[in-house]
Specification:
The chain is of the alpha+beta class and 609 residues long. The protein has helices spanning 51-59, 117-122, 124-127, 131-153, 194-202, 240-257, 271-278, 299-305, 326-332, 348-354, 356-365, 396-417, 419-422, 431-434, 470-476, 514-523, 528-542, 556-564, 594-600, and strands at residues 13-25, 29-36, 39-46, 65-74, 89-100, 157-158, 176-178, 186-188, 207-215, 227-236, 268-270, 291-292, 313-318, 342-345, 373-379, 437-441, 446-449, 454-457, 494-499, 502-509, 549-555. A hairpin with a 2-residue loop joins β2 (29-36) and β3. α4 (131-153) runs antiparallel to α6 (240-257) and α16 (514-523) packs antiparallel against α17 (528-542). The chain is globular, with a radius of gyration of 30 Å. The protein binds one RNA strand of 77 nucleotides through β1, β2, β3 and α2.
Length: 609
RNA sequence: GGGGACGUAGUUCAGUUGGUUAGAACGCUGCCCUGUCACGGCAGAGGCCGCGGGUUCGAGUCCCGUCGUCCCCGCCA
């Protein structure tokens, strides 16, 4: 291979096959850098030694595929290239074959500046020849192998589940596959193997895992592709702690293959705490927590600032940002996405001038250094006068939440904006500082769906509520259409694993009892008949002796993305899709022929007006 | 569904207040060059300024629309 020859190989015969990475033609002396996925080696063609080969070498162009046969030669000391691993040797060509020519590519894998992403995706096969992409592909392979072998060693079986399965509405939109044999009926591609893995527990496969593709027809983001890969696992009889232990185990193994020793167990934090301290259910622990600095203000202060004293007043601290100019302060406002009910004080200096006592207390409480940026987010005092629609009394908790999350979003936005100043996002080489893992636990069981005016499952409807909240669940059933119902307080045995502010995975202990499952469906506003229609097969399975079980699923792409230090999933997925879910290389999706549609019994409605 | 950024040579970009023949670097083609390694030198080719419309004596530049890529909100149990 092109990256493996060293001084110790000097004198040996070698055959190098690969692409012409670069040709340096000095006239009677031609150097060719031959590249394959392992690296680059210099091949020398000397007119004096071998005129025929030299002539052939002059005809080579970038990205030709060649075979060079020759003798490995230790280079003279003054011609050694210390920048590459093979720089101490070169191959003196004795035979040169052009295995294939190449058109001039739209860009070269060896280029220092990347072309725009559209071009990279269209000519993905050229883009993938680049070192960085080869590195990412290898990293992904190694991570997957490490996870497989760890889970296998722990007694997990990798078991495949169908891709063509049943649409179970709720959650994301399905990708549908029409049935030819049964016109008018459709399979759905799985959003996750959720029900299959639970059924595997009922089937006696008490430790299951799968590195599996999942499909969701939702809008894309830098960290969201319509098809993505999950590390999916499920086990019988576990406490949540047991699931966490398994995940910590395979993540350690995965990070180890990438050269990082991470510390386990990961810290844990309840959902409520995460919201209060970080304004997010996926806190980035590399940054300091926020502080509720309500006590720093007097009643008069609140009035003067038009701030609601009954709501949190959150101090966000971003370290080492330093003095901000007027213009820079103005740039903070657009980052703040809090709507109507939260307000922003981005100018701490002014606060210090007008309310020196409060400002001093805030500084102390946030342990702020002089060059730290402090920004305050508070509740608008108009809130109290605004009863929420429908005449229901305002839910204080809900408004608290709005202030926390508005502050949390701003915290992350500010941190990103000033990343180069606080340097907390830069890799230090110390894995326990660079990779801040966290378990977020005790998620709420239900979320109020403002649009549908009903409660929805926060995780999924098969998640087990906390034992201690069973009464609230039963109590809430009569008020299943009331946003203030006790259902809001029901906590689930659900947990997320978070890394540096990215949700890596999400899991739960599941419901294994029919009666509780029925109550959950009821709370979600589903009648017995509706539940039967959607999940009948599963409810029936639950009745045949279901062991308690639970599990989790982690995004493999996101793990590899973070390990690769990439900003987008597209860097670690060989053939990704654009923001409009198009594959630019194969140009998919496409219309299909009338004949194909006819066979499937499908008619396309003409675009409206 | 909404908001924002971008679109000029094969590629990455520059292009003044709307003004005459649209530039640079890399790449490409040819010639020269025996120790280069992002080789060097000389010469040259290469443009539907995304597309369509409008304003104007005149549009790469201003306006409207449209297409494409990226980022964000909504959405993603």
């Amino acid at each position: 291979m092109c990256g493996v020859l060293r001084s110790s190989d000097a004198g040996k015969k070698a055959v190098l096959m690969g692409w012409v990475n670069r040709r340096r033609d000095l006239g009677n002396l031609v150097f060719i850098d031959v590249r394959d996925r392992t690296g680059v080696t210099q091949v020398v063609c000397n007119k004096e030694l071998n005129p025929a080969i030299h002539e052939k070498a002059s005809r080579l162009r970038n990205e030709y595929v060649i075979a060079a046969i020759g003798t490995v030669k230790q280079r003279e000391p003054n011609t050694i290239n210390r920048n590459i691993p093979t720089g101490e040797i070169e191959l003196v060509a004795e035979e040169l074959r052009i295995l294939n020519e190449a058109k001039q590519p739209p860009f070269l894998p060896g280029d220092t500046v990347l072309p725009n992403e559209e071009l990279r995706l269209k000519y993905r096969y050229i883009d993938l020849r680049r070192d960085a992409m080869q590195f990412n592909l290898e990293l992904r392979h190694k991570v997957a192998i490490a996870i497989r072998s760890y889970l296998s060693s722990q007694g997990f079986f990798e078991i495949e589940t169908p891709f063509m399965t049943r649409s179970t509405p709720e959650g994301a939109r399905d990708y549908l596959v029409p049935s030819r044999v049964q016109p008018g009926s459709f399979y759905a591609l799985p959003q996750s193997p959720q029900l299959f893995k639970q059924i595997l527990m009922i089937s006696g496969c008490d430790k299951y895992f799968q590195i599996v593709r999942c499909f969701r027809d939702e809008d894309l983001r830098a960290d969201r592709q319509p098809e993505f890969t999950q590390i999916d696992l499920e086990m019988s009889y576990p406490q949540p702690e047991r699931v966490w232990e398994v995940v910590e185990g395979f993540l350690s193994a995965a990070f180890k293959t990438a050269g990082y020793e991470i510390k386990t167990p990961f810290p844990r934090m309840s959902y409520d705490e995460a919201i209060r301290l970080y304004g997010s259910d996926k806190p980035d622990m590399r940054l300091p927590a926020m502080n509720d600095v309500r006590e720093a203000f007097t009643a008069e202060n609140f009035q003067a600032l038009a701030v609601n004293p009954n709501l949190p007043v959150m101090a966000i601290r971003i370290p080492k940002v330093g003095e901000l100019s007027r213009k820079e302060r103005d740039e903070i406002k657009p980052l703040f996405t809090g709507k109507g009910n939260a307000k922003l004080f981005e100018d701490f200096k002014r606060l210090e001038k007008s309310f020196p006592d409060s400002a001093a207390k805030i500084r102390a409480k946030s342990s702020a250094e002089t060059d730290d940026l402090i920004v305050i987010v508070a509740g608008d005092d108009k809130l109290a006068e605004h009863p929420s629609e429908g005449g229901v009394k305002p839910e204080v908790k809900q408004h608290d939440h709005a202030v926390y999350t508005a502050a949390g979003l701003l915290r992350v936005a500010l941190a990103q904006k000033y990343a180069s100043r606080h340097r907390l996002f830069e890799k230090t080489g110390n894995a326990s500082v660079d990779f801040r893992f966290l378990w977020v636990t005790d998620f709420p069981m239900f979320e109020w769906d403002e649009e549908g005016k009903r409660w929805a499952a926060a995780h999924h409807p098969f998640t087990s509520p906390h034992e201690r909240d069973m009464e609230k669940l039963s109590g809430g059933l009569d008020a299943a259409e009331d946003p203030n119902s006790p259902l809001a307080a029901v906590r689930a045995l659900a947990y997320d694993v978070v890394l540096n502010g990215t949700e890596l995975g999400s899991g739960s202990i599941r419901i294994h009892r029919q009666d509780i499952q029925r109550k959950i469906f009821h709370a979600l506003g589903m009648t017995e008949d509706e539940a039967r229609a959607r999940f009948g097969f599963f409810l029936e399975a639950l009745e045949y002796g279901t062991p308690p079980h639970g599990g989790i699923a982690l995004g493999l792409d996101r793990i590899v993305m973070i390990l690769a230090g990439a900003e987008s999933l597209r860097e670690v997925i060989p053939f990704p899709k654009t923001a409009r879910a198009v594959d630019l290389m194969v140009d998919a999706p496409t219309p299909v022929s009338e004949a194909q549609l006819k066979e499937l019994g499908i008619q396309i409605r003409k675009a409206r007006e």
